[in-house]
């Protein structure tokens, strides 16, 4: 058990003293309980996290799968897998209900990700989003920032679903997703349908962008100063916040895919969400990093110029760096979709093994 208190922990002070919220980057109940103790007001998951959660209790989830299969003898592996995802999520959601109630829906959210294999099918994404929305009042549904996903975000928002844009690494994707949410909200408002308790967020996956930029630099034979790479994700999020302030988006920005403490410390003070894996929460709480607002501190211009040598950093950093039609073919999108689809297939395999093994 942690020995420090909320008031003297770095993460607790981040939440209590600034506009920045902390979410837990997992639906694992034990990890979420730790996070909530130190001020977290949300949680999120993706196919990789779901598989990791299964592996923390493999016998328990295998047994639960067999029970579900016995109760639903005609269900396919896919149906059983999504039933497990739903159950993992609904077990975690109650831990966030107090924050949900206190914030009027702005916080206290539990994210569930839609089927990553459906990233080209807006109708399928919308259908699954509506199913997830009914699982708990504080559910928020992850949709990918692909061409079909952007269309799905608008329609799902219009139908009352709070969305979380994922598979998103650039200012252009974040702006397109937030604009889609705005259109959905405006359509609801035009019909006098309630939007007061909706809490959409738009993710930028900082670490996954930086992972990709390192690969791109190696592929192009470029020698980029290593310090510059550590600032790429932070620079993109800070640039996105400029657009948020200029455009007045209702959705909040969410920074994810933590790789180092700059992904926390340099964003403290922003009216945004930081989603942190449990291991990083513990490291940050044990650190001596000063908790102070740095969100308005500019990234060193020299580091930005170094990063601009990478075309994909320019694509990520500039608000018009990518068109919606280019999202699907962009390197970080392709790489992350492959990872999420692979983890989803791992989950299907675990479900099959639970029944047949």
Supply the CATH superfamily name.
Aldolase class I
Order of helices and strands: HEHEHHHHEHEHEHEHHHEHEHHHH
Could you name the CATH topology? TIM Barrel
Give the % helix. Answer: 40-55%
Whole-number total of structural domains: 1
**Helical stretch count?**
17
**Kindly state the mean pLDDT as a whole number?**
95
Supply the CATH architecture: Alpha-Beta Barrel
Query: What's the N-to-C terminus distance?
Result: 36 Å
Cross-sheet strand order for the largest sheet: 1-8-7-6-5-4-3-2
Structural write-up:
The protein is an alpha/beta fold and 357 residues long. The chain contains 17 helices and eight strands. It has one domain (6-356): TIM Barrel (Alpha-Beta Barrel). 55% of the residues lie in helices and 10% in strands. An eight-stranded parallel sheet has the order 1-8-7-6-5-4-3-2. Strand 7 (252-256), helix 13 and strand 8 form a beta-alpha-beta unit. Helix 4 packs across helix 17 and helix 8 (147-158) runs parallel beside helix 9 (171-190).
Give a concise summary.
The chain is of the alpha/beta class.
Would you spell out the secondary-structure blueprint of this structure?
Blueprint: H1 10-17, E1 21-24, H2 29-37, E2 42-43, H3 47-56, H4 58-71, H5 77-92, H6 97-103, E3 109-113, H7 122-133, E4 139-144, H8 147-158, E5 163-166, H9 171-190, E6 201-205, H10 206-220, H11 226-229, H12 232-247, E7 252-256, H13 262-265, E8 272-276, H14 278-285, H15 301-307, H16 311-317, H17 331-356
Parallel strand pairs: 1-8, 2-3, 3-4, 4-5, 5-6, 6-7, 7-8
Helix pairs in contact: 3-17, 4-5, 4-17, 5-17, 7-8, 8-9, 9-12, 10-12
């Amino acid at each position: 058990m942690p020995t420090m208190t909320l008031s003297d922990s770095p993460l607790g002070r981040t939440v209590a003293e600034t506009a920045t919220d902390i979410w837990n980057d997992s639906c694992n109940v034990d990890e979420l309980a730790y996070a909530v103790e130190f001020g977290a007001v949300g949680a999120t998951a993706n196919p990789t996290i779901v598989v990791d959660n299964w592996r923390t209790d493999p016998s328990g989830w295998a047994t639960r799968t067999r029970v579900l299969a016995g109760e639903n003898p005609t269900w396919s592996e896919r149906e059983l897998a999504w039933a497990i995802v739903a159950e993992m999520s609904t077990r975690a959601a109650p831990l966030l209900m107090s924050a949900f109630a206190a914030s009027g829906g702005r916080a206290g959210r539990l994210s569930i990700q839609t089927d990553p294999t459906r990233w080209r099918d807006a109708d399928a994404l919308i259908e699954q989003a509506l199913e997830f929305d009914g699982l708990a009042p504080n559910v928020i549904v992850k949709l990918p920032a692909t061409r079909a996903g952007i269309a799905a975000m608008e329609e799902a928002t219009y139908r009352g679903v709070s969305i979380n844009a994922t598979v998103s690494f650039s200012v252009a994707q974040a702006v397109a997703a937030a604009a889609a949410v705005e259109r959905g909200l405006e359509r609801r408002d035009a019909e006098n349908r309630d939007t007061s308790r909706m809490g959409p967020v738009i993710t930028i996956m900082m670490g996954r962008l930086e992972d990709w930029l390192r690969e791109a630099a190696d592929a192009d034979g470029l020698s980029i100063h290593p310090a510059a790479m550590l600032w790429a994700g932070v620079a993109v999020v800070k640039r996105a916040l400029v657009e948020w302030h200029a455009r007045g988006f209702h959705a909040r920005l969410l920074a994810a895919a933590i790789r180092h403490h700059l992904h926390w410390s340099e964003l403290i003070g922003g009216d945004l969400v930081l989603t942190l894996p449990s291991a990083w929460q513990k490291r940050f709480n044990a650190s001596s990093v000063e908790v102070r607002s740095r969100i308005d501190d500019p990234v060193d211009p020299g580091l930005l110029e170094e990063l601009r040598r990478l075309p994909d950093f320019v694509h990520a950093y500039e608000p018009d760096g990518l068109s919606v039609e280019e999202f699907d073919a962009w390197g970080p999108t392709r790489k992350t979709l492959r990872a999420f689809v692979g983890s989803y297939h791992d989950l299907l395999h675990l479900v099959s093994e639970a029944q047949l093994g």
